Amino acid sequence: MSAVRSELVPSRRAPVLRVMTVPLLDAVLAIEVQAYTFPWTRGNFIDSLAAGYLARVLLAEDGELIGYFVAMQGFEEMHLLNLTVAERHQGQGHARRLLTELYALCASCSASAVWLEVRESNDRARALYAREGFAEAGRRRDYYPAPQGRREDALLMTRGVPREGGA
Ligand SMILES: CC(C)(COP(=O)(O)OP(=O)(O)OC[C@H]1O[C@@H](n2cnc3c(N)ncnc32)[C@H](O)[C@@H]1OP(=O)(O)O)[C@@H](O)C(=O)NCCC(=O)NCCS
Q: Is the pLDDT at 69 greater than 70, yes or no?
């Protein structure tokens, strides 16, 4: 019975993770400018790749870009600089998948904690990070630009990452 059923259901492969490269930046920027009022520029991405930051993209089976992250490795810690999922793919667990990949990268390079900043007003991202076990560790006053020349605070958040082979 189950064998028959599986023949009838069209197979849809799970999205795949790839290293972010310069040829992908047109697609990355198309998502970036939609997602943020103050998006990263192409130069920000190019500089990040040139600096050797860890950057991954999540691609659908047909090659469509679903989302991406950029993270900077520090001494025994990782700093998440950018995590974005295309609007039409949000709410389907893709950010969690990207974060899971980041934790795996942390474990393989002996980073025992992830740090990030998030806008205080970004409820969706804060809900994601809270569900993922991040805790608030501080506040950076006026960290982000905001509309009409104002500034907005960042919340500094952190989460431990088990070492490879650990519990
Ligand atoms: C924040 C963001 C990355 C979440 O991506 P996503 O793929 O939609 O997230 P997921 O589907 O993996 O959801 C994981 C969790 O995020 C939160 N979340 C996702 N969509 C949400 C929504 N519409 N409202 C509130 N919380 C939401 C929930 O806590 C969710 O957990 P749950 O599924 O157990 O309820 C995405 O909304 C995004 O790219 N936003 C614009 C860019 C941005 O703000 N990036 C973060 C900068 S710090």
A: yes
Note the pTM of the prediction, 2 decimals.
Answer: 0.92
- Which of 124, 140, 153, 156 is the best mutation target for the ligand 1 pocket, counting ligand atoms within 8 Å of the beta carbon and taking the most? 124
Catalytic residue numbers read: 117, 129
Mean pLDDT of the chain: 93
Q: Is the CB of 21 within 6 Å of ligand 1? A: no
Residue 10, pLDDT score: 56
62-66: long-range contacts at Cβ-Cβ below 8 A with a sequence spacing of 24 or more?
65/24, 65/27, 65/28, 65/30, 65/31, 66/15, 66/94
Span from the CA of 53 to the centroid of ligand 1 (angstroms):
23
Which is nearest to 109 in space by CA: 50, 53, 48? Answer: 53
